[in-house]
Structure formats: structure tokens, C-alpha cells
Amino acid sequence: MNIALPERVERFRADLAALAGPAPAAFGVAVSGGPDSLALLLLAAAAFPGQIEAATVDHRLRPESAAEAAFVGELCAARGIAHATLTGAPVAGNLQSGARALRYDLLGQWVRDRGLAFLLTAHHRDDQAETLVMRLQRGAGLAGLAGIRPRVAIGGLSVLRPLLGWRRAELAEIVAEAGLMPVEDPSNADDRYDRARLRKRLAETDWLDPPALARSAAALAEAEQALDWTVEQLIAERTGSVPGGLSFDATGLPAELRRRALLRLLALLVPADPPRGDAVQRLLAALEAGETATLAGVRCEGGPVWRLSPAPPRREP
């Protein structure tokens, strides 16, 4: 394994430590065989020898996928790294989002079965810039514009992204210097997918600066965290108990803090599947008008002080 520059290994070690503190005895790395994830594997193995395991998810959507997973397995075996191939095909619907959800489900189960502390993925600075532009085009709010988070919990799985400060070209260079030929996923160049089209446009646009876009996403993520912290303080200060439920004093709060507080209250009462989107906006409008409405099994009474409680079961006709 050739990571020619020791400063790269030290840089990676510091990036992971900033997210996780001292590295645990064992953690996982998601490796598809593409250049980004191969670079992640090489860096992690060089920085933390004997502490990593790798997994590849094969969705069986392409004839080549089994051979690509086997390639990663052989690469790991040659370096003494435990490797698992996880298989499963996404259900019908949006193919990419379905594959992503299934991928994290499979990886999460693997991490738990192996007793690993967390999972690393290879999202990098160029991914961050692409995500920000895509979400701007879709009219995303602050949470969406915060982009890819360095650390996130997905279905109970702790996912860390230590490469968000690295460029795609840097990672490709590491793989090339190691003498490896990475897997090329054709979907990355398929114009049917939004990200593939955007990636081509960004490559053709020399006035857009991916590092600057990534810095903006990081600043927005800090603002998002500050708002989340503020809402937690408001919940602690303004929430009371009523028979069977909660009350919340919404007096004088800006609209965005009212919206976030309502989401948090609903999550407290419906932790399994709190509602989102337009349904919450309609509920917020009803509360601000002093009306009573029910959403997701929660009865909500409006006015200056909201009252939320589980709705009584409907009577059968």
C-alpha cells in the first residue's frame, strides 16, 4: 500500500480525530471500489492499521457489480483487512434514493453485527459543492443548504465523513500512486441523474469555486446547529405539562423558531414517525389562527399557548 506522503496520513488522522476523538479499536469503512472510497480505504488503513474493516454493498443492478465487490474483497485480503459483501436490491420507486436507504440499512446491520464503533464514507469537498448547488436549485431551506454533514446518525448508525475537506482530484491521485485501477460506476456519467448532469456543468464552469461553495455549506451547517440549540433551549424554558400532553408558549417567537419548535414537539409525541413538510405548515397556520387541528394522531390546540396531546381514538361507525 503506497501512501507516499506521510503528511497525507497525518492529515487524515487529524480529520478523523476532529470528528471522533481517539480512534476506537475497530471501525468500518464503506468501499464501493470507486476512486473516492478506495482513497478512503488506503488512508484509513495507513493511519489506523489493524483497526478497520471494510464492506461493499452490491445492489445487483449491473452485471459487473459482483466482480467489483470481489475486486474490493481481494484488495482488502491482500492488505489483511476484513471485508464483507452485502447484497440487496432496492424496491421499486426512485432508484437512487431507494438504493441509498437500503445501503445504509445493510451497512448499519453489518456495523452492529461486527461490533464496530462507526462507519466512514468517502464524501468529499466536491460532493459538498454539488449538493449545495442541487439543493439551491430545488429551493431548499437552511437544513438542506447545510449540505452533507460531517457526522450524522442514520437509522441508529453513526456515519462519519472525514474527507469533506479533501478534493476529488487529491483522492484520485492517491489511488493512482498506489497503482490501483478504480471501478467506474456508469451512473456517475448518466444524464438521467441530476447529480451527473450537474457534475458535468460544474466541470465546464470555471467561475464556480467548489471549495468556496463547500465553505458556504459549512457556514450554513453551523447556523443550522445554532438554531437547533436555540430550539432546545426554548423547549426547556417554554414547555409545560397538561393532562395527557404538553403545552408550549409560542408568544413572540419568530416564525422559523415557531416552526422548529412545533417539529420538536411533534417528535416528542410521535417519536417513531414525526410528520414533515406541507402538513406541518398547515398545522402551524391553524395554531397561529387559534384553531384546533389533528395531525399524526396528535391533537393540537392553538393560540398564544399551544396544547398538544394524543388524539382520542376514532369511533368505529
Can you offer a commentary on this structure?
With about 325 residues, this protein is α/β, with parallel strands linked by helices. It folds into two domains: about 5-215, Rossmann fold (3-Layer(aba) Sandwich); about 245-310, no CATH class. It has eleven helices and eleven strands. A six-stranded mixed β-sheet has the order 3-2-1-4-6-5. A five-stranded antiparallel β-sheet has the order 7-8-11-10-9. Strand 10 and strand 11 form a beta hairpin. Helix 1 (about 5-20) crosses helix 2 (about 35-45) and helix 5 packs across helix 9.
Tally of domains: 2
Beta strand %: 15-25%
Distance between the termini: 70 Å
Radius of gyration: 23 Å
- The helix/strand series, from N terminus to C terminus, equals HEHEHEHEHHEEHHHEEHHEEE
Number of strands: 11
Q: Could you report the average pLDDT, rounded to the nearest whole number?
A: 88
Q: What is the number of helices? A: 11
Mind sketching the topology for me?
Blueprint: H1 6-20, E1 27-30, H2 35-47, E2 52-58, H3 65-78, E3 82-87, H4 95-114, E4 119-120, H5 125-137, H6 142-145, E5 151-154, E6 157-160, H7 168-177, H8 194-204, H9 210-238, E7 239-242, E8 245-249, H10 255-269, H11 278-288, E9 292-295, E10 298-301, E11 305-310
Parallel strand pairs: 1-2, 1-4, 2-3, 4-6
Antiparallel strand pairs: 5-6, 7-8, 8-11, 9-10, 10-11
